[in-house]
Amino acid sequence: MPTDTVSYVQSGMFSQIILDYLEGNEALKEFYHRSPDPENFRLQIEEKSVNFNVDRNLLADELLRQSVGNISKVVQHNIDLLRKPNTFTITTGHQLTLFTGPLYFIYKIVQAIKMCHELKKAYPNFDFVPVYWMASEDHDFAEINHFNYRGNRISWPQSAGGAVGRLPLGGMDDVFAEFDKLMGRSDAADQLRDLFKTAYLTSRTLAEATRKLVNHLFADLGLIVIDGDSVVLKQLFSSYIKEELLTQVANEAVRETIDNWKYSPQVAPREINLFYLGDGFRERIILQDNHYFVNNTDLRFTEAEILKELQNYPERFSPNVILRPLYQEVILPNLCYIGGGGEIAYWLELKELFGRQNVTFPLLMLRNSVLLVSAKQSQKADRLGLNWADLFMPKEQLVQKTTRRLSSVPLDFTALKQQLSAQFSHLKVLAQQTHPSFLSALAAQEQKQLKGLLNLEKKLLRAERIRLSDQIRQVTLLKEELFPGGLQERYANFAAFYETDDKLISTLLEKLNPWSKSFTIITI
């Protein structure tokens, strides 16, 4: 292959707002603080140093409490570093997807770790630690209760309500049995079996299982796992929760932003951007007639009552998608958030909110995107005369390009169409010297003949596709292998690749550039 990258622009996989963000479009610059270029981290460090007010010892103690019994020496060291004022975090977050869910779960975390390494080289007087924020308070169970392994959807068939991190793990024996049956017999496969059993068959909740899983994969790389579903951390954020209850500042700030840009909003704010967490439920808090109601329950509070509830039970108040980023940036000495296209798009809606709350807006880094290929698939692409950009094309476009490239006859009638148009242009000059009705007849004839050429071109292309059907079948099969259900990284689970190469994570750490603006193609 001539290249091991395909630019995000060339890939055709990103929305306009993300392309504008990557290209530094002027119209978008007012919606973020600084671009995530390495040199801008100096300014971010200086600002966050002044603007971070949380007791670092309290934060570190809570992180140690959360990690008790499941922590490596490297993670212990990184948590201790957070006690020092010259230590900052690089954070990514994700849902508690079953067995990590899609591949990009892994890519986000590796990128955060690699970025910390690179920043330490650039700014040796500071320390940088990677953080994975577990979205333990999310309640969209349907998004997280499955993963795809070698074309098979492995699901956890359980009814669920409330914060997913609190879910008990009943039925995981059956999930493991299905996974075990599909896996091969190798040392790497046995490692995956043990990892699944250790995480999911010895834990009480989904949050605990996810922490064990992530710690096993990344603990030796110093990754700190944080769970926002915490009394201590909610206390640190309680003044912002109080302001949201009393003034609805988030709704006003975010609506002002999305009313002044040209993009479709990624998320829309509520009047109150908080949920109330209870046993088995997480429901919106609604303000109506000077009372606070918890949706779909009998719970209601006066202003004084809900403020007392917040004081006594801060853990019962859960930020929604609008306030969760603010929560993260208040409690962590964070410099940069790494997220996917959809995440970056909604973070861009939040800068005004951060400004009103006097919280430093983080640098926003689009997560790394990767296409994993086997040596056999790479050789097959070479043999078929394909480059990686070709394989990112929509299937029909790829088939047409392949047919034209392999055909021994010219399939592009562009030159003939141009010749025909030139002839009719000459005729139009003559026609202007006759009756006007001749011009109309001439235009109709031109369209008829152009349409005829187009039909002939389509028929010839169709005939060549039939003649070249074997080669085209090989191309489409390769496309389907590398892009199952769309992008590989949004569909496939890491297990299928780890089973082939148990050095997958170290390979990613070596190959990925955290500041890349291209898909990285990695042969494993």
Q: What does this 3D model show about the protein?
A:
It is a single chain. The chain has 524 residues and is α/β, with parallel strands linked by helices. The protein has a domain at 5-234 and 321-369: Rossmann fold, CATH 3.40.50. The protein contains 24 helices and 15 strands. The protein has a five-stranded parallel β-sheet. Strand 2 (87-94), helix 6 and strand 3 (127-134) form a beta-alpha-beta unit. Helix 7 packs antiparallel against helix 8 (187-200), helix 8 (187-200) packs antiparallel against helix 9 and helix 18 (395-406) packs antiparallel against helix 21. It is globular, with a radius of gyration of 28 Å. It starts with a strand and ends with a strand.
CATH class of the domain at 5-234 and 321-369: Alpha Beta
Structural class determined from secondary elements: alpha/beta
User: What is the CA–CA distance across the termini?
Assistant: 15 Å
Helical proportion, percent range: 40-55%
Global morphology: globular
Proportion of residues in extended strands: 5-15%
- Main-sheet strand order equals 6-3-2-12-13
Rg on CA atoms, Å: 28 Å
Please give the largest β-sheet: 5 strands, parallel
Stretches with pLDDT under 50, minimum 5 residues: none
Q: How many E strands? A: 15
Count of DSSP H/I helices? 24
Oligomeric state, counting identical vs distinct chains: single chain
Mean pLDDT: 91
Attribute tags:
about 525 residues, five-stranded antiparallel beta sheet, single chain, Rossmann fold, 24 helices, about 15% strand, alpha/beta, five-stranded parallel beta sheet
